[in-house]
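Q: Structure tokens for this one, please.
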Amino acid sequence: MVQTVLGPLGLLLVFAGFIVSLVAVILLILKAMKGKRKVKGGGAVIIGPFPIIFGTDKESVKMLLLLSIVLIVLIFIVMAFSYYAFK
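A: Here is the predicted structure, written as tokens:
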């Protein structure tokens, strides 16, 4: 029963991620076209437990590094929980 729910839920989360990314890009483009404001930002790609982080300024990179570490810790907690729960 759990597997029948997790498959569509995972697909839904992937689509939600694409939609959030698309909306963020559109908002950044609109904000940049509106005025002479400087747009700051960055991104993180997590491959296994290793984050690859890039950004336009130090503050963005620090925030992304913190968020990446939190995400990696959460992933390890979920993996440990699922290992012991379904053993």
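A few notes: The chain has two domains: 1-38, 40-87. The beta strands are 42-47, 50-55.
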